[in-house]
Design goal:
Helix 3 packs parallel to helix 8 and helix 10 packs across helix 15. Strand 5 and strand 6 form a beta hairpin. Helices cover 45% and strands 20% of the residues. 37% of the residues are buried. It folds into two domains: 230 residues, Metalloenzyme, LuxS/M16 peptidase-like (Cytochrome Bc1 Complex, Chain A, domain 1); 178 residues, Metalloenzyme, LuxS/M16 peptidase-like (Cytochrome Bc1 Complex, Chain A, domain 1).
Length: 422
């Protein structure tokens, strides 16, 4: 399959194998660097699942733990192997996915073979799992010591009762300590499967040759793995868990986070993308750096350049997050409420809408000069069930009336929570 976007002048090639494994190649003629991803749609949200009639409840943080162990091969250093090829290799786990990636200017075929090779194998021992726990706990502690992270996580815990988006991707000390080699192997065999994984390559590459290299790097054992299990996510009520949480820390200035919980979800991917883009336009219109709200309260000293607002979403969750460093967090909370009340009476500005939509189009177009941006955007959208080229088409079709409707649908502060680190 070939997808062409005339405005971007980009072509995305896709091949789906019989077992569901997907291969994507986006050629960029004349670009020096090639980026590749080998990813599974398995992140921190997917700890409860059903397989062969059995329900599994895995410890929080196990997807991230598994990422660590896949890199941990006995007597063989993955980083050294990629370094000898002049490439850098890395991996990350988020709420939706675990991704293994490299970037290089040479030896692309060898790098593809290496990347796919080590992810398709898993070597585990009880001793190595116990050793890794200490490394992961140090990583978790590093985040726990950051007040910004604590304020953000308290916001998520205030928004959600049951949804696992509220939990730290790396898990917690007790959950990490409870992970065993058998648990890791079960998750690996369940989610590192052809129907759950894909490969994506972008750079100055020959499409047919790159696809053939990827196919040749897939092992028979991997290709014959059974399909991924059924994910179980809890029913999440629309109301928030708590409205306000304050903690105290040794800080030069308090940290403020407000979350507004989304209550509208779509199975259709294009509707989900449209809602996300409308919401991002709205947050920029109301609280962006070019808004009257920002100008007024920046000049008064209530907020500084740290103030930001964005809409985050996935298949089963969504929220607007507003953050700031401010000496008067409760005053800022009140001012946000007054601004939303003012807009509900006076309305939104259509000229602001047009300006911000054009800005988003321009940024997206210019960002396609970066292969790294395209690669990261592709993976981010893929995990949300969104096609890469749908962004501009959807953005250009958004109308002002949809923005107005979304404002009244979403910006209701009875569905909000505030987290403050004093």
């Amino acid at each position: 399959m070939i997808f062409y976007h005339p405005l971007l002048n980009e072509t995305l090639h896709k091949k789906v194998l019989d077992n569901g494994f997907e291969i994507y190649v986006l050629p960029k003629k004349g670009y020096m660097k090639t980026h590749a991803f080998f990813s599974t749609e398995y992140g921190s949200l997917y700890n409860k699942f059903q397989k062969n009639g059995k329900t599994y409840n895995m410890p929080l943080g196990i997807a991230h733990f598994l990422e660590h162990k896949i890199f941990d091969e006995d007597n063989d250093n993955i980083f050294d192997r990629f370094g000898e090829l002049g490439a850098t290799v890395n991996a990350f786990t988020n709420h939706f996915a675990t991704c293994y990636t490299f970037s290089t200017i040479d030896h692309v075929d060898d790098c593809i073979h290496e990347l796919l090779g080590f992810v398709q194998t898993l070597e585990l021992s009880d001793e190595s799992v116990e050793k890794e726990k200490g490394i992961i706990l140090q990583e978790i502690k590093m985040y726990d010591d950051q007040p910004q992270w604590k304020a953000f996580m308290n916001m998520l815990k205030g928004l959600y009762h049951e949804h696992p988006i509220q939990y730290d991707i790396g898990g917690y000390e007790d959950t990490v300590m409870s992970i065993h080699a058998d648990d890791l192997l079960t998750c690996y065999e369940s989610f590192y499967t052809p129907d759950r994984m894909f490969a994506f390559v972008i750079g100055d590459v020959d499409v047919d040759h790159t696809i053939s290299v990827i196919e040749a790097s897939l092992t028979t054992e991997f290709m014959n793995r059974e399909k991924a299990p059924i994910i179980c996510l809890p029913d999440e009520p629309s109301h928030v868990y708590y409205n306000l949480k304050e903690e105290t820390c040794n800080l030069p200035m308090p940290i403020f986070y407000m979350g507004i919980k989304d209550r509208v979800f779509y199975n259709d991917t294009k509707k989900r993308l449209r809602k996300g883009l409308i919401s991002k336009i709205l947050t920029d219109m109301i609280f962006g750096k070019g808004s009257s709200f920002f100008e007024k309260h920046y000049e008064s000293g209530l907020i500084n350049q740290s103030f930001s607002c964005d809409f985050s979403y996935g298949r089963t969750f969504g929220y607007t997050g507003i953050s700031a460093e401010t000496r008067e967090p409760l005053v800022l909370k009140e001012m946000i409420g007054l601004e939303i009340e003012r807009i509900s009476k006076e309305g939104l500005s259509e000229s602001d809408f047009e300006r911000i939509r054009k800005k988003m189009v321009g940024r997206h177009l210019s960002s396609f000069n970066s292969t790294k941006y395209i690669a990261n955007t592709f993976v981010n959208y893929y995990m949300k069930g969104i096609e890469l080229f749908d962004y501009l088409e959807t953005l250009e079709k958004i109308e002002f009336k949809q923005i107005e409707d979304r404002f009244f649908e979403h910006f209701d502060l009875q569905y909000s929570t505030v987290s403050i680190i004093n």
